[in-house]
Write a structure and sequence with these properties.
Layout (H helix, E strand, L loop, with lengths): L2 E5 L4 H10 L4 E6 L10 E4 L5 H11 L3 E4 L6 H6 L1 H22 L3 E6 L21 H16 L4 E5 L2 E2 L9 H11 L3 E4 L3 E2 L2 E2 H14 L2 E5 L5 E2 H12 L6 E4 L19 H5 L7 H11 L3
Parallel strand pairs: 1-2, 1-4, 2-3, 4-5, 5-6, 6-11, 7-10, 8-13
Antiparallel strand pairs: 9-12
């Protein structure tokens, strides 16, 4: 099997990629602060900010493809730790792109819908970026520099993802489920909209990009929904008639990173290439039926 290097294996997307693709690829997955084990996957503990160690990994493994998902992805944390998170969100991404460019290894770098300001959705790949928080700023800079270093790289802007986050990561989906189970109050925005994407669909889109895309690609679901309405959908699928869901507005939240109202992605380009995410309700039903959360 061909060798695939996946960074950020303990994160939501990295873990889903490794578990879904380990039968088709010989996968080497990197971890750092949150070690995990995945049957059939070679786990490598490495600080991706250490270029010497990173180059050593490339030289030893000689990957035939690379998917770079590792990031400090918490907008609030990035807002208050700008210098620290710049290293992994920008510098490491550029270094990985350079190492891939040296041997023309196919690369997918994952970015975010938060590169946009949320005022003129839905956003195509050609829409001008205007990030409202530090995390978005860092991802914009990483996108630009990755493609400068390696123009053949695929940069996938991911929408809000849901499903099984694996043993070390978290997700808003799991947070909702736990709140329902424990009867806790759950405040959900009625004025924040995204195009959510399941982990399974995200993996499909990533490998589509690895095979067919050079440059920018948007990977979002086909349905626009607020967090509050997503909570209602989840309740309906679970058969819950009463839950302590409290509707709220973005202005009610006191968080370090500014929120954006609507960063729904237009994924028509991906759809034309064969990307076909399952309808939102159907995918939620499938995940609940699996019962892994």
């Amino acid at each position: 099997m061909k060798k695939l290097l996946v960074t950020g294996t303990s994160g939501f997307l990295g873990w889903n990629i490794c578990t879904a693709a380990k039968k088709e690829w010989d996968i080497f997955g990197t971890v750092f602060s949150h070690p995990v084990t995945i049957d059939g996957v070679h786990i490598i503990r490495i600080d991706l900010n250490d270029f010497r160690e990173l180059k050593k990994i490339f030289d030893e493994i000689r990957p035939e493809a690379v998917i770079h998902t590792a990031a400090a992805a918490g907008p609030d944390y990035c807002q208050t730790h700008k210098s620290e998170t710049h290293k992994i969100n920008v510098d490491a991404a550029v270094n990985i792109a350079g190492l891939c460019a040296d041997t023309r290894v196919p690369l997918v770098f994952t970015s975010t819908d938060l590169v946009f300001d949320g005022l003129q959705p839905p956003y195509t790949e050609e829409a001008p970026v205007n990030p409202m928080n530090v995390y978005g700023e860092q991802k914009v800079l990483a996108e630009e520099r990755v493609l400068e270093v390696y123009s053949d790289a695929a940069v996938c802007r991911m929408s809000l993802m849901f499903g099984d986050p694996g043993p070390a990561a978290s997700s808003f989906f799991k947070t909702m489920l736990m709140a329902f189970k424990e009867g806790r109050e759950l405040k959900l925005f009625t004025d924040e909209f995204r195009t959510p994407l399941s982990g399974a669909a995200a993996v499909q889109g990533i490998f589509l990009a690895l095979e067919k895309v050079r440059g920018m690609l948007h990977l979002g679901g086909s349905e626009r929904i607020s967090r509050y309405d997503f909570g209602g959908l989840l309740m309906d699928v679970l058969g819950i008639t009463k839950a302590n869901i409290v509707p709220c507005l973005q202005r009610d939240a006191n968080m370090p990173a500014p929120r954006v109202p609507d960063v729904s992605l237009d994924s028509a380009k991906a759809f034309s290439l064969g990307f076909n995410p399952v309808p939102l309700r159907e995918e939620v039903e499938r995940i609940i039926k699996q019962g892994n959360l």
